[in-house]
TrEMBL record:
Main location: membrane
Keywords carried by this UniProt record: Cell inner membrane, Cell membrane, Competence, Membrane, Methylation, Transmembrane, Transmembrane helix
GO cellular component: cell surface; plasma membrane; type II protein secretion system complex
Entry keyword annotation includes Transmembrane: yes
Organism of provenance: Anoxybacteroides tepidamans
Cellular compartments annotated: Cell inner membrane; Cell surface
NCBIfam families: ComGD, IV_pilin_GFxxxE
The protein's name in its UniProt record: Competence protein ComGD
InterPro entries assigned: ComGD (IPR016785), N_methyl_site (IPR012902), Pilin-like (IPR045584), T2SS_GspH (IPR022346)
Membrane topology: Single-pass membrane protein
Residues of the General secretion pathway GspH domain: 44-133
Gene Ontology BP, a term: protein secretion by the type II secretion system
Amino acid sequence: MAHKNGFTLIEMLIVLMIVSTLTILVIPRIDQLEKVKEETYMIEQLTDDLLYAQQYAMTHKTAVVVVFYNAQGRYRMTESYTLGRTLIDRTLPSQWLFELATLQNPLTFLANGNVNKSGTILIKNGKTTYKVVFLLGKGRFYVQKL
């Protein structure tokens, strides 16, 4: 009886064919996953920045002004007034734009953490749109995917 010490060429080709087929099926999904991850990160970053502005206003007992640049993917947070000390000046990833729906610039977090006015901002990227709604009262806001 002869002992086999390895794999035949046919067995190796079958295994390589299975591995390549699985690789081809997985690669397009990774690209979609990257877009979703970037979108999620961007929305979380905006939310964190707005919460930071609110907390900064309350801890420093001063107003924080937030300016969203319409038709641009950029926002800026400054202390006390629009020409005050810049806290955050951030640009969104390419193709993302702000559209002021009912909110008018500037949005101000007062020293008690409340906003000076309510309103809605849309964040758009082609087919994807997010709505950021600022509520009167305790300075609350929420982000909703449309």
